[in-house]
């Protein structure tokens, strides 16, 4: 009998712990989860700074000719970006002039906060990542996150100086989208993606007259109206559409950008406060 008791002791302990966790109030669970997140944040942040320092010293071993060539390439890139910035300023001024002439309401403005990616869970590769900025930089839950390839996701949890980003490939992320050049909205949702596999999502409520396949993919962008994301940001490429069983709409498959698997920096869009109304 004692031998049988010793064999069952781990299972009994596990059952007691599970029962105690179920009986704990939700507020206590939330506090414990937030406290654990804040407790582990310095560890992830320190590891991120250590990787940055390692990358810095690895660059110091390059020869002078390699550094000169890299400097020339960087100068060319900076020149192209300077030209693009001037063109963008001109376009923004033209948009403002047209909005004033047509008396259109102002579009929401954003402040851009660039953050380093410090951790990515291997068990949930396509679901979440942690960035090295949080509440201290004005980041809020629900803030959209983007990068050069398009949409990254939205902020799901905010700590003092770290934040958790729910990736667009996660099934928990849903947003309004549209085909490039078409103003009719469709519903996008992340898919169940295997670890290290190609990231994909799905779309629903696609009009019957829209078509796309792997040979002629269509660009899917954010719809913008009534959501957190500005309009026109790339989500992915629609590589398949097929009619639903009801025959009214179509469903489709979206291939997400491969750059999502190797993110090192992202940009958080923080909504700027609306300007105060002028006194009469």
Topology, please?
Layout (H helix, E strand, L loop, with lengths): L1 H22 L2 H34 L4 H39 L7 E11 L7 E4 L12 E4 L2 E9 L4 E5 L6 E6 L6 E5 L9 E7 L11 E5 L11 E10 L6 E7 L8 E7 L9
Antiparallel strand pairs: 1-2, 1-12, 2-5, 3-4, 3-12, 4-5, 6-7, 6-9, 7-8, 8-11, 9-10, 10-11
- Could you tell me the number of beta strands? 12
Question: Do you know the CATH architecture of the domain at 174-262?
Answer: Beta Barrel
CATH-defined fold name of the domain at 174-262: Thrombin, subunit H
Q: Return Rg in Å.
A: 24 Å
State the CATH superfamily name of the domain at 174-262: Rod shape-determining protein MreC, domain 2
User: Topology as H/E string?
Assistant: HHHEEEEEEEEEEEE
Annotation field: number of helices: 3
Strand content: 25-35%
The largest beta-sheet arranges its strands as 1-2-5-4-3-12
Mean pLDDT equals 83
Q: Any overview of this molecule?
A:
By secondary structure, the chain is α+β, with helices and mostly antiparallel strands. Helices cover 34% and strands 29% of the residues. The chain is built from 3 helices and 12 strands; from the N terminus they run αααββββββββββββ. Strands 1-2-5-4-3-12 form a 6-stranded antiparallel β-barrel. A 6-stranded antiparallel beta barrel has the order 6-7-8-11-10-9. A hairpin with a 6-residue loop joins β6 and β7 (186-190). The N and C termini lie far apart (88 Å). The model has no long low-confidence stretch (mean pLDDT 83).
List keywords for this structure.
six-stranded antiparallel beta barrel, six-stranded antiparallel barrel, 280 residues, Thrombin, subunit H, globular, alpha+beta
């Amino acid at each position: 009998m004692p031998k049988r008791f010793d064999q069952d002791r781990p299972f009994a302990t596990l059952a007691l712990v599970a029962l105690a966790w179920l009986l704990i109030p939700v507020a206590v669970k939330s506090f414990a989860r937030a406290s654990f997140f804040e407790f582990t944040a310095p560890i992830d942040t320190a590891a991120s700074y250590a990787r940055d320092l390692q990358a810095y010293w690895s660059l110091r071993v390059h020869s002078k000719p390699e550094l000169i060539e890299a400097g020339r390439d960087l100068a060319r890139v900076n020149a192209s970006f300077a030209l693009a910035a001037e063109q963008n300023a001109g376009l923004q001024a033209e948009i403002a002039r047209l909005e004033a002439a047509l008396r259109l309401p102002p579009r929401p403005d954003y402040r851009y906060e660039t953050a380093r990616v410090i951790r990515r869970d291997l068990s949930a590769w396509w679901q979440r990542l942690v960035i090295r900025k949080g509440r201290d930089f004005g980041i809020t839950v629900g803030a959209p996150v983007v990068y050069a390839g398009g949409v990254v996701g939205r902020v799901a949890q905010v700590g003092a100086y770290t934040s958790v980003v729910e990736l667009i490939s996660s099934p928990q992320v849903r947003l309004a989208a549209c085909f490039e050049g078409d103003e009719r909205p469709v519903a996008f949702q992340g898919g169940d993606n295997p670890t290290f596999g190609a990231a994909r999502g799905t779309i629903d409520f696609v009009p019957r007259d829209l078509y796309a396949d792997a040979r002629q993919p269509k660009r899917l962008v954010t719809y913008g109206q009534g959501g957190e994301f500005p309009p026109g940001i790339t989500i992915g490429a629609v590589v398949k559409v097929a009619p639903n069983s009801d025959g009214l709409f179509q469903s489709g498959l979206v291939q997400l950008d491969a750059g999502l698997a190797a993110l090192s920096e992202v940009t958080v869009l923080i909504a700027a406060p609306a300007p105060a109304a002028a006194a009469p």
